[in-house]
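Teaching note: in complex prediction, the entire set of molecules is handled at once rather than each chain in isolation. The prompt given to students was simply: 'Predict the structure of this complex.' The entities are:
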Amino acid sequence: MSTQTIDVAFPAVQVDYDQCSYCGACVAVCPPDCITLHDATLVIDHDACTRCQRCIPACPTGALTIEQRP
Amino acid sequence: MKNQYDIVVIGAGPAGSIAARTTAQAGLSTLLLEKRQEIGSPVRCGEAAGKETVEKFLPLDSKWIAAEIETFSLTNPQGDYVVLPPLEHTLVLERKIFDRELAHSAAKAGAEVMVKARVTDLIKSARGIEGVRINVQGKRHDVRAKIVIGADGTESQSPRWAGLKSIPQLKDYYTAAQYLMTDIDVDPRICQYHIGWSLAPGGYAWVFPKGDKQANVGLAMGVDPKEQHTAIDYLNEFVAARYPHSSILSQVVGGIPITNVLPQMVTDGYMAVGDAAHQSDPMTAGGITNGMHGGLFAGEVAIETIRQGDTSAKFLKKYEERWEAEFGKLYRRLHRIRHALLKVPEEKISRMIHDASKLDAQQMSLKDIFMIVMKSHPPMLLEVAPYFLGQ
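The expected output is the structure of the full assembly:
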């Protein structure tokens, strides 16, 4: 198994595309406007993201997490 | 598509289509843009709207009316419910058809309608907003406009690009999920609201019949970072407990701002309408006819603006003033009521519904019911009573 370096202090918001419905609930509450919704893609600009985590509880399906992968 | 229009409207939902129809009817060159490939789809809405209000905007047509509702009921988690006396005749719409008909009516009035046309940015200058950058099937175009009307929905970005403060606070945001269910045993004349924090924390669940043993069964909850479960989780629980034998035909989810409208809905050359301007009502988050009113007001002000040759924010403020005159007081009250309700423990709300369920509601006015129930709960009376007494 390969090892991966993860910035634990500043983990990125992850999208579970199996759960995402592309509804835009996260887009509306994102202060730096770093989430973009196209027809069937949700793109997060991780450089612009401040990790404020407002998007996570706003998601109706639980598709967004900020937990690091083990 | 031309390079220049009087009016460009972003988003062909009810608010955008009404805005475009209004300006096109007045002879203004109007372009109505929809990013999706199909207007009205996917449906992201409970689909209930006041009959008389809808009729003001579009002649009633059975092809987009799924059900005619006579009244509403309030149910607590124990299953006690009170059927309220009729307030306003309500329709449950077939939004897919309804939205398309509205866009059609805008086109018939002379608006140019384009689907699969995604706005990627606004064109700005020192004088304000001067048009839109769009992407149509991979090709980029700049389209100039005297006025841009942003009707791009809850996930809208145009208000931000225009410089408006449009990010809702989480305390004023619903996260929601809905199933279209079939083979469901519900009274086709009653829209049900289910209230209880254990059922839908900070929100409510609804069952809106759509005829033919179908119904929209949905749930909206407040956003709480400490909450472990999602709107879908709560909806699944609600459905499993009540309709275990019904099938789910479709699923929609979404977020809805319930902040009350944006403090500022216009800037130079730009107006926001509908969900983009947070025009859903700040208690139930109902927004179809509200957004249509927003579109109408913005369209009418746009006509005046262009006739006067002044597209400044100062002039466009007339749109905000019209909204304020029509909905300002009501919305502030609904917003207060919701926050007052949030402080009431579930047991108290349940008991109030239980008490009311013992009354013969059909024989009483709404005012009578509320006076009786509220007597046992004075603090609520102060906030809620004026609304129901129609002040």
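Point out the following to students. Chain B has a mean pLDDT of 92. DSSP finds ten helices and 18 strands in chain B.
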